[in-house]
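Tokens help. Consider this.
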Amino acid sequence: MDNVGIVVESLDTAVAFFTELGLELEGRTTIEGDWSGRVTGLHGQRVEVAMMRTPDGHSRLELSRFLEPPVAADHRNAPVNSLGYLRVMFAVDDLDDTLDRLGSHGAEVVEEVVDYEGIYRLCYIRGPEGILIGLAEQLG
């Protein structure tokens, strides 16, 4: 997989949140022009993009803020059984520490942290703008 894309209202807020999670900003740019509309089907688009790289260097997260056209729908508060994109799950070394750090960026645990058969500690959180993120700490 090359990357996962998430559309946000505030690129700065999202970059700060995912930096705190351990991702590194590769770069920011504005995407526009005929070629981009031919890829996405949104002709006339102007999009600010920030590309974030995971600490292991294997995956990237593309954060996009649409300037044109306006955002078409808002799925940020959809329940976890909604069709389509659900969430991105990140592996973390220390779940409690990660939750403390992300809490300063407004993250809230959806329900609770659970222990899955002594193998993982897991939770879902709502990050900036209600984005649903999964966190998993491998145990032992």
Remarks:
- The first strand starts at residue 3 and ends at 7.
- The mean pLDDT is 93.
- The longest helix spans residues 11-20.
- Strands lie at 3-7, 24-32, 46-53, 60-68, 88-91, 108-109, 114-116, 120-126, 132-138.
